[in-house]
């Protein structure tokens, strides 16, 4: 059995680390598309999470998504033809996932989709396009929860569906206990809120980005903000970067490694984010944090139902109110995660061996 794993962005590296590290080099090939290319967004995670160097790396241009997808689609078949995998495994909903699954489909290789069935029902999101297409052309669909299985059933996908939990909980279980020793952090704030933003529909829109930034600054809370490169570009483009740099309650830092991120999540009062993965991670008993989700919708309704996340919408006043409310009462009782116990990667490997 040979599994070709295709990955290209920060969350794919983190969420596939537990699977790649369980599969030997003999049984798998790791193909990195280079969608994320800065050290802080890519190689840093291979190094920290002790993932072997990719067996194949694509050279793609730093251009717009359609061109990048086209380049991946053009380059992947030669690699697939060389390694002749029994399945191509992809994780999540990025442009890498879309390109790799379309390439696999046209090369006649069954697709295994990890984190299948998430839906925000928000067609503004490129991730919604990518995951719907990938789910419909996959043979094996690893849905994290019953909610995602239900989404897949209602769309009548043709592949086999398995509810497995999310590999992000495996990653936390593996890495969270070593993060205190390994993290290199210089944070002088004591009581701080962790902030991350990068969703295209948030940060590419000047009005929305301005509302979020103003609410964050006005809340008066101390924020630590590891800045995604997309967001940095947009803050500069819209003339908001200097305002942020000058505000005393925001500590802007580069995107951090996984150990640093785990420590920030553990030590913060609560989290303000539009990230998908962070909504899941906050539910791990090792993190257990409230999350103010600055979005109109979520593809992680399980975290809302379980009482971890609250969706604010995108108006300045609603975001500000939600931050103030979380600050007044940041603590959460200990709960179990709706995303599994941390044995998802093991289950997925077994299910692939049984069903391919
Ligand atoms: C992508 C995924 C998103 C995921 C996120 C994780 C898609 C459609 N989106 O969004 O689902 O949540 O990754 O972080 O695939 N850039 C750099 N350096 C890098 C990477 C990106 O400067 O290492 C800049 C480039 O200008 C690039 C822009 O960020 O054009 C956006 O990058 P891209 O990979 O297209 O999308 P993300 O916003 O990172
Ligand atoms: N993350 C990280 N460093 C950062 C920001 C995020 O290690 O500076 C981790 C985070 O803990 C999670 C993943 O990256 O595991 C989420 O990535 P992101 O928010 O970029 O993408 P999404 O999950 O929204 O697709």
What is the gyration radius calculated from CA atoms?
A: 20 Å
Strand content: 5-15%
Helical/strand content category: alpha/beta
Mean pLDDT: 97
Q: How would you describe this protein?
A:
There is one protein chain. The chain is of the alpha/beta class. It contains 16 helices and 13 strands. Helix 1 (10-22) crosses helix 16 and helix 7 (167-182) packs across helix 12 (258-267). Bound molecules: uridine-diphosphate-N-acetylglucosamine and uridine-5'-diphosphate.
Question: What's the structural blueprint in terms of helices and strands?
Answer:
Layout: E1 3-7, H1 10-22, E2 28-32, H2 43-48, E3 56-57, H3 65-83, E4 87-91, H4 95-106, E5 111-114, H5 126-137, E6 140-143, H6 146-154, E7 160-163, H7 167-182, E8 193-196, H8 200-203, H9 206-219, E9 223-226, H10 229-237, H11 241-246, E10 250-253, H12 258-267, E11 271-273, H13 276-281, E12 291-293, H14 301-305, E13 309-311, H15 316-328, H16 344-355
Parallel strand pairs: 1-2, 1-4, 2-3, 4-5, 5-6, 6-7, 8-9, 8-11, 9-10, 11-12, 12-13
The chain binds uridine-diphosphate-N-acetylglucosamine and uridine-5'-diphosphate.
The site of uridine-5'-diphosphate has 15 residues, from helix 1, helix 12 and helix 13.
Quick take:
The chain has helices at 10-22, 43-48, 65-83, 95-106, 126-137, 146-154, 167-182, 200-203, 206-219, 229-237, 241-246, 258-267, 276-281, 301-305, 316-328, 344-355, and strands spanning 3-7, 28-32, 56-57, 87-91, 111-114, 140-143, 160-163, 193-196, 223-226, 250-253, 271-273, 291-293, 309-311.
């Amino acid at each position: 059995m040979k599994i070709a794993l295709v990955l290209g962005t920060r969350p794919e590296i983190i969420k596939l680390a537990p699977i790649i590290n369980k599969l030997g080099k003999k049984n798998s090939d790791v193909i990195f598309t280079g969608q994320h290319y800065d050290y802080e967004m890519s190689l840093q995670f291979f190094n920290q999470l002790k993932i072997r160097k990719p067996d194949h790396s694509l050279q793609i241009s730093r251009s717009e998504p359609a061109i990048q997808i086209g380049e991946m689609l053009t380059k992947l078949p030669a690699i697939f033809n060389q390694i002749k995998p029994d399945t191509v495994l992809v994780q999540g909903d990025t442009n890498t996932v879309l390109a790799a699954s379309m390439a696999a489909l046209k090369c006649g290789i069954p697709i295994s989709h990890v984190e299948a069935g998430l839906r925000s029902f928000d067609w503004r999101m490129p991730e919604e396009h990518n995951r719907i297409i990938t789910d419909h052309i996959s043979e094996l669909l690893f849905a994290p929860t019953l909610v995602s299985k239900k989404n897949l059933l209602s769309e009548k996908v043709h592949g086999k569906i398995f509810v497995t939990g999310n590999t992000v909980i495996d990653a936390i279980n593996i890495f969270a206990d070593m993060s205190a020793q390994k993290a290199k952090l210089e944070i002088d704030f004591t009581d701080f809120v962790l902030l991350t933003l990068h969703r295209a529909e948030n940060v590419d829109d000047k009005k929305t980005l301005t509302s979020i930034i103003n609410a964050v600054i006005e809340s008066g809370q101390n924020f630590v903000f590891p800045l995604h490169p997309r967001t940095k570009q947009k803050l500069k483009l819209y003339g908001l970067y200097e305002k942020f740099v000058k505000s005393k309650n925001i500590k802007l830092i580069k995107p951090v490694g996984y150990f640093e991120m785990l420590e920030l999540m553990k030590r913060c009062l609560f989290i303000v984010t539009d990230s998908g993965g962070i909504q899941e991670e906050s539910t791990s008993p090792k993190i257990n944090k409230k999350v103010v989700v600055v979005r109109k919708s979520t593809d992680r309704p399980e975290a809302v139902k379980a009482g971890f996340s609250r969706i604010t919408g995108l108006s300045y006043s609603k975001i500000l109110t939600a931050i103030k409310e979380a600050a007044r009462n940041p603590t959460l009782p200990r709960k179990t995660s709706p995303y599994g116990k941390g044995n998802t990667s093991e289950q997925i490997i077994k299910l692939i061996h049984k069903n391919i």
